[in-house]
Structures are given as structure tokens and as C-alpha cells.
Amino acid sequence: MSTTDFSTLSLTPALLSTLQELNYQQMTPIQQQSLPAILAGQDVIAQAQTGSGKTAVFALGMLSALKVKRFRIQGLVLCPTRELAEQVANELRTLGRSIHNIKVLTLCGGVPSRHQTLSLEHGAHFIVGTPGRVLDHLQQQRLDLSELSMLVLDEADRMLEMGFQDDVATIAAAMPAQRQTLLFSATYPAKIEQLAASLMRDPIRVSVAANPAQNQIEQQFFSLAGSSRELAVMLLLQQFQPASCVVFCNTKRVTQQLADALQQQGFSAMALHGDLEQKDRDQTLLQFANKSARILVATDVAARGLDISELDLVINAELAHDTDTHTHRIGRTGRAGLKGQAFTLIDGSDDYKLSLLQDDISDTIQLQSLPAKALLDKTPVQADMVTIQIQGGKKQKLRPGDIVGALTRDQQVAFEDVGKIQLHDLWAYVAVKRSAAKKALQILNHDKMKGRSFRAWQL
Q1: Are 130 and 80 in contact (CB under 8 A)?
Q2: In whole angstroms, what is the distance from residue 132 CA to residue 104 CA?
Q3: Are the CB atoms for 217 and 342 separated by under 8 Å?
Q4: Tell me, what's a Pfam family for it (predicted)?
Q5: How far apart are the first and last CA of the chain?
Q6: DSSP H helical segments within 245-277, as ranges?
Q7: I need a labelling partner for 226 at 20 to 30 A (CA). Which of 175, 282, 361, 457 fits?
Q8: What span, in angstroms and rounded, lies between the C-alpha atoms of 458 and 390?
């Protein structure tokens, strides 16, 4: 038996069985280094990139310590964004599916507090949320953390960047001092060290270095040489034609400006940053994940929690402020053994940051020229899919099978032309091939599902 097998850990037979069903066989490096200490009840600081399997680390720690018959909040996970919180909650539910009556609640901004308050009155085992909303419920005395045994800070560096340090400290003060605390961070600045010192007891620190070469990421650096960033990004997109690409910018303003410029030139692009309404952020992420948009222009903070398994290309429209953030950005491509590409635009003001990056990757960075401007004469390729929103969801008893059945009845729309389906309480979203969108809209607006009519429109 390999030492990287999950079966070598002191997990319950039910959890081991679930891991087997989910095809989680070999532990990733971060899982192998941190899980034994976590299962032994120790505080752990884990430094690892997105995509390293860290969510399963603390999820398994929480599920192993769970006393399901004690219907009190036993674990709290704080995340910087709602998107990440929802992913974490889903993974907790998936890994804990063999445990009967387990209840995981998300407490995040962007949705009415009223529904969350009602859910809290019915109790929960685990809370996953953003610091602002968790603190709000705590101060309104709707949330009782007095019996909590585990606190997890996920993407702690980004929470500090977003100014949540005081909120985190106030939340921690409302829980028992004798608890287990786990801190996960892609980077380890001095502020994280201070946070750990204030919240943790003799933590063990584990670190898994990101190795872009292992992930088969090809990095290229392009000199702007007087060209605008908008033009440079367009030329690279036209030259390499990625099916899915994230373009990183350092500020919300530049992110929106670049996304607007790409859209005006006919590119299938969307912006993702903190100034967007929560509903718009959710729909943007949804459309990018289901292949209804090819290009996502994003800030670092907004892209946290972005979980796209097959990302062809990352473009750094602006060089990141530090080498850790650069590594984290490019680590989003080339996952799961797939090849990935990462392009970075450089101008004269980047000399200092570029020299730091060169030291970090221990290789000479060669600046290349941008592709020829004639490429802009070609029409940009559109996304394969479009997203249709349906005015009905779980509350109307809609299921994915109802939507697929309506669309493919009498082969009106081919089964392979139907993409991802997402169901929410009052809404449903279905991705369909662009060529089938008109027919799909006609069916959904005129045929019945579950014996009733629903309104549908294209996003």
C-alpha cells in the first residue's frame, strides 16, 4: 500500500468509501503533508496554490471531527468571496454525503439575510461564509459559535488584502479558545504571520511549492513597445485563439476598460471584479464555466474561487505586484496534466518587478515582439455556447432531466447540443450550442415542463 493512499489515514470507513466512490485515491502533496497533523487535532498553516487539493484537506478534517448527533455549529470556514464559499460548501456536502442528516449552511453577502436567518434558526453543523456576513449574523445574535471546535481560514492572504482582518479577529473572539485552527494561503506575507500568531496555538507549517514546469505551463513574455495593452491582448487572442482564457489586470478600473474594449471589437469577453453586483458576478462566472464566454477579464481577488478545469491560456495584461501572485495566476492553466500557456505583457515601468520574477524562476526572461497587427482584420471567434435563463427552479420542482427532456423531445434539439445545467431555488440556467439557441428558446417559452409554462430568455 502506497503512503499516498487515503486508506493510510485514520478516517472512518464511511469517509474512505466516499473517497473511493469519488475516485480520490492518491493524496496530493498538500494532503499528504497536512492531513495527518489535522486529524491529530493540531493547528496547521498550509501554503498551497489553488488546484492543489487543499479544500479536501480541511473538509476531511472537519468531517472526521464531526459529532453529527450534536446539532450545534462545530466548524466555520471563512472565505474571501461568495463563489469560493459556495464551492467549499459543495465539497463539504459531497465528501460528507455518507453521513446522514449533516447540515452545511453558507452565509455570504449578495443574498438576503432573511433566508439565512431562517436557516440558522433550524441549526447547522458547519457554516461556510464571508467574514462580513458572518460577523453581521454574529452581532445580531443569530449565530452561536460557543460550541465550535474548528475554524478554517481559506485564502487568508486575499481576506487580508480585502480588509477583513478586524472582522476575522472579532469573529474568532466569539468562539472557544480551545479550538483547532487551520489557515490556508497561496502566499505568506508578514500580515499572515501576524494573523496566525494571534489566532493559533503552536501551528505546524507546511508548504507545497508551485512548480509551473510540472504543470506543463509554457510561459512567454511580450514587450508592449509602445502598443496599448488593449491592442496587445487582442493580437494575442487572435494569434492563439484560446477556447477559454483569463486575462488578469491589477485594478477594477483597468479590468472593466479592457473588457469593454474587447467587447466593442467583437470578442466574446466578460469582466469580473468587485464593483459588479453579486447577481452579475454569478452570471459571469456561470457563462464562462459553461463555455458561453471565451474570455474572462478579472482582478486577482475576484478570480479567487474560479474553478475551471480546462483553461487554455492566462494573459497577464499587467504584471502582478509580486511573484507569488504571478505564480498563482499562471497556475490556473495546465492543470491535471494538461498543457497550458501563460503570456505576460511587459512595459518599461515593469523592470523592477521583472527582475524579481527572473530571480524567482531562475531563468532568463526573453522578451518577444507582439504578433502582426494584420491579425485584427479577422473576425474574433464567438463562444460555442449561449446561456438561457429559465424563470423557475427547485421551488417549482424543476430537475435537469425536465429541461433536457423538453429540449430533446422529438429530437428538436440534439442531445449533444445541450450543455451544463444549473438549478437554483427560483431560476435555472441551461447552456446550448449557439446554432440551437433560437430553437431552444422557442421550445422553453412555448412547451410545458412539469405541466406548466415557464418564461425563458438568453443572457
Answers
A1: yes
A2: 18
A3: yes
A4: Helicase_C
A5: 51
A6: 252-264
A7: 361
A8: 9
| DSSP code for 366 | P
- Assigned C-alpha cell, 400: 435537469
Q: Are 341 and 312 in contact (CB under 8 A)?
A: yes
C-alpha cell at 99: 453521513
- Does the pTM of the predicted model rise above 0.70? no
| pLDDT attached to residue 213 | 43
Are the C-beta atoms of 128 and 106 separated by less than 8 Å?
Answer: yes
How far apart, in whole angstroms, are the C-alpha atoms of residue 228 and residue 230?
5
Nearest alpha-carbon partner for 213 in 320, 331, 50 = 331
Q: Does residue 149 contact residue 175 with C-beta atoms inside 8 Å?
A: no
Q: What is the pLDDT of residue 214?
A: 45
Considering only CA atoms, which of 443, 455, 388 is closest in space to residue 412? Answer: 443
Q: Is 420 left (phi over 0), alpha (psi -120 to 50) or beta?
A: beta
If you write DSSP's letter for every residue of 421-451 in order, what string do you get?
Answer: EEE-SS-EEEEEEGGGHHHHHHHHHHSEETT
The cell for 233 is 491582448
Cell representation of residue 207: 508548504
Among 117, 124, 137, 118, CA closest to 96: 124
Question: What is the rounded distance in angstroms from the CA atom of residue 272 to the CA atom of residue 126?
Answer: 29
Gap between the Cα atoms of 173 and 185, Å rounded: 21
Q: Looking at the chain, how many residues does it have? A: 459
Which candidate, 56, 30, 62, places its Cα nearest to that of 152?
62
Residue 21, SS3 per DSSP:
helix
CA-based diameter of the chain, in Å?
67
DSSP 26: B
Distance, CA of 123 to CA of 210 (rounded, Å): 39
Query: Cβ distance 414 to 437 under 8 Å?
Result: no
Give the mean pLDDT per block of 10 residues along the chain (459 residues).
75 90 85 93 87 87 91 93 87 91 89 84 92 92 94 89 85 94 86 89 84 66 93 96 93 96 96 89 90 93 68 92 83 70 92 82 83 91 95 90 88 89 91 95 92 93
**Among all chains, which residue has been given the C-alpha cell 498553516?**
45
Helix (H) or strand (E) holding 332: none
Domains for the chain: give ranges and CATH numbers: 6-207 (3.40.50.300), 217-377 (3.40.50.300), 385-458 (3.30.70.330)
